[in-house]
Design brief:
- By secondary structure, this protein is an all-alpha fold.
- The protein has one domain: ABC transporter involved in vitamin B12 uptake, BtuC.
- About 60% of the residues lie in helices and about 0% in strands.
- The chain has 15 helices and two strands.
- A two-stranded parallel ribbon has the order 1-2.
- Helix 7 runs antiparallel to helix 10.
- The longest helix is centred in the middle third of the chain and has 27 residues.
Amino acid sequence: MSRKLHVTIRSGGPASWVIRLLTAAFVVLIVLWVPTRASDSLIDTATTALVWMAAAMSLNLLVGYAGQLSLGHSAFLGIGVYTTAIGVTRWGWSPLWTMPVGFAVAFVVGVLVSLPALRIKGVYLALVTLSLALVFPQFIKWPKIEWLTKGASGIDQVSYKFSKDNPTFELFGWNPWGNLRGQNVKPFYYWMAVLVVVFVYLVCRGVVKSRMGRSLVAIRDNSTAAAVMGVNLAVTKGVVFGLSAAMCALPGSLLAMKTGTVTPDTAMLTVSGSIVMLVIMVVGGAGSLWGPILGAAAYELIAEKTGEWNEADQIPGFLQPVLGWSEMPPSTGIFAVVLIALMFFAPYGIVGLWRKQIARVVTVVPRPAGTANLPAEGSAPAGS
C-alpha cells in the first residue's frame, strides 16, 4: 500500500524562501503582463479590481484583525473621492497631492467614528457605521455645502486632460510621467492602482507583524484579557479605525481620477459599496493579508464575465433555467451563491481552503519563538 507524499518545510529555511520567491515572481509576471499584453478592457477591469483590493484590505485590518465590524467604509472611500474631485476642480491641486490630504481627513473622521466603538461592539457597532454609510450621500447633497460638492449633479472633469490649462501629476514641479497628451492613459491609471495596493498591503503587513498587530488580535479574541495584559483599548481601537479609514480613502482618490465624474449616488459610495467590500473580504479570507486580494480578483472576474448577460439569450444554455428570469445582469446573485457555497465548504474563504488543501501534503514548521536573533548553529558568539 503506497504512502501519500508528505513534505515538511521549516519556516525561514531554504525551501520556504524558494516558495516565497516563486510566488513573488508569479505575481510580478501577472502585474507586468496586464498593461503590456492585455486589451484595454482587461486593463480597465484589472484597475477596478485593484481599487476593490485596496479598499477591502483596509477593511480587513479593522474587521479581520481587530474584530470591529464596520458597514460604513463606503463613506471613507467617498472622502477620498470628493477630496480629489474638489481639490482638482476647485483649487487646481495636483491629483497626487490630494491623496495625502484625503488620507489625513479620513483618518480624523475614522478616529471620531471609533469613539462609539469604545463602548459598543458587534451588531450595535455595525449599525453605527451603517448609519455613516447612509448619511454620507445625503450629506454630499446638503444644500448648504452644494457650492463645494455640486450636490446631486456631482463633479465632472476630474480626470486629467493632459493640457497646460488643467492640473497635472507633477511632484514639486517635476513630471516623471512624460508627455501623456493623446496617449492611452489606461495603463497609467493601472500602475497608479498597483502602487496604491502595494502601499496598503505593506502598511497592513507592517501593522499585523508589529506589537500593535498582536494587540489587535488580543482585542478581537478577548478584549477583557487584552486590557488586563496592558493593552490600551481606546488608543489601539482609535488608531486602527483611523488607519483603516485613511487607507480606504486612497483607492477613492484613484477612483475619482479614473472615472473623471463623481456623484453621491455612485454605487461604490453607497451602502452597497460597503457590503461589497465586506463580501470580498469574507470570500477571500478575513484575517489574512492575501484574502482581500484574491476575493477582489474573484469578484471582479465574476462581475466582468456575467455583467454582459443583459438578455436571457446571452446566458449560457445550462444556466438559462436558473438565471433566465432575471431582468438584470445576475453577477451579484452569482457571487452571492458563491459566498453561500464557500460558507459551507470553506468558512475561512479562499485562503483558508488553500491552506487546508496544502496542509495535506506540506507541513510548515514555524520558527521557535525567540530564535530570530540567535546566531546560527556552529557560529562564534558575538564579541568573541
